[in-house]
Amino acid sequence: MIIMKHMKKVLFLILVFTTCFLISCSSNTQEVLEESEEKVEEKEEEEKEETDKDDADTTSQQVMTLGTYAGLPRLSNGRTDITTLINQLNDLNANTYNWLVWQGDKDWDDLILFLPFAKKHNISVWVTLVPPSESKPIAKWSSEPYGLDYIRWSREIALLSKVYPNLTALSIDDFVHNIDPKKYTPAFTPEYVGKMMKEINKVNPKLKFIPCSYYRQITQDFANKYGSLLDGLLFPYRAESEGANLTNPDLVESEIVHIRSLFKEEMPIYIDVYSHPHSRLGATTPAYVEKVIKDGGEHADGVLIYIHPNPVSYSEKYKIIKDEFARLSNLKK
Fold first, then answer.
1. According to the model, what pLDDT value does residue 332 have?
2. Residues 104 and 98: beta-carbon distance below 8 Å
3. So what's the pLDDT on residue 50?
4. What angle do CA 140, 176, 242 make, to 5 degrees?
5. Are the beta carbons of 269 and 36 closer than 8 angstroms?
6. What is the DSSP annotation of 201-248?
7. CA-based, 20 to 30 A from 234: which of 1, 160, 172, 193?
8. Is residue 71 within 8 Å of residue 310, measured between CB atoms?
9. Dihedral of the CA atoms 203, 159, 234, 218 (nearest 10)?
10. 97, β-bridge pairs
11. What pLDDT shows up at residue 330?
């Protein structure tokens, strides 16, 4: 009888212990589940942020556009030396490269190869095509493979920008010199540009159209006709308000202010700085390049260098560009 009482007591204690243990496990399990759910939510949020980051032009959103144009290093077989180009852009503190499709037979193919490497290094890419005035049969080369079919180009570049979101802009060199249909076919009339933009917007409305436009040709009439079609202007500074030269760096602010005043809505302006000699206006000095970059960084929405500097043959200007880009990279735009 006594043994039975002790057995019941032991069984009761075991039951109580087991119940407490299960309750404790249940509580811990719930805590673990809640913690896991929180981690999953955090992970999903991180992945979403990463996706959003990939889909945006991160460099241009965080800092002003700082880049170089054309003049890329090539291998002995004529193909782009992608590794050297990436290393130089990083060394220059550049966040953008404006890729010219023109003299190399494989420029378009090399662009496709370059884009993922640029993306890995947070480098935005613009693509520049040459206009009819710089294409066959007038010139030795054309932008290939689509030649003068800029509507097709618009679609193909937009499609590529969907695969590589760091491809952020399309530009046309000497755009303003190719708007008269009496001189060129095709000409970049408002109607033709509208067709180009229609192709872009069907595929990727985030892709910007920022054509190369010179001071003298950016008139009130030009602003009225093209303002709603453009996402910005690539503005080669040549002191054209006093004629045209590459010796006076002091008109950057006044010329940018004037250009902005012509447009009803704010028009982003990216100043193009001549580091390389111009065929007619000659060469610039290192001091000139430094001053134009400084003033451009203060008054424009971005600074691009014409052309990508060779660190050996243009060592002094290369260092100036590197130092100025390092300073400007901290300025929010």
1. 57
2. no
3. 52
4. 110
5. no
6. HHH-TTSEE--B--GGG--HHHHHHHGGG-S-EEEE---GGGS--SS-
7. 160
8. yes
9. -40
10. 68, 125
11. 84
At 90, the amino acid letter reads N
What is the rounded CA–CA span in Å between residue 164 and residue 119?
7
Q: Tell me how far apart the alpha carbons of residues 114 and 120 are, in angstroms, rounded to a whole number.
A: 10
SS3 content of the chain, % helix, strand, coil (to 5): 50, 15, 35
Write down the mean pLDDT value for the chain.
87
Instruction: Please state the length of the chain.
Output: 333
How many angstroms separate the CA atoms of 175 and 199, rounded?
18
Q: 317: part of which helix (H) or strand (E)? A: helix 315-328
Phi-psi region of 160 (alpha: psi -120 to 50; beta: other; left: phi over 0): alpha
Residue pair 128/211 in contact (Cβ under 8 Å)? The answer is: no
d(CA 198, CA 274): 33
What DSSP designation does 277 have? P
Check residue 265 and give its pLDDT. Answer: 87
Which tens digit of pLDDT belongs to each residue from 38-97?
443 444 444 444 544 454 444 334 579 999 999 999 999 999 999 999 999 999 999 999
Rounded to whole angstroms, what are the CA distances from 205 to 157, 161, 202, 238?
Answer: 12, 10, 7, 32
Q: Could you tell me if 124 and 134 are in contact, meaning their C-beta atoms sit under 8 angstroms apart?
A: no
Q: Helix or strand or coil: residue 124? A: strand
Residue-wise pLDDT for 110-128, tens only, equals 999 999 999 999 999 999 9
pTM: 0.82
8, two tokens: 């019941």
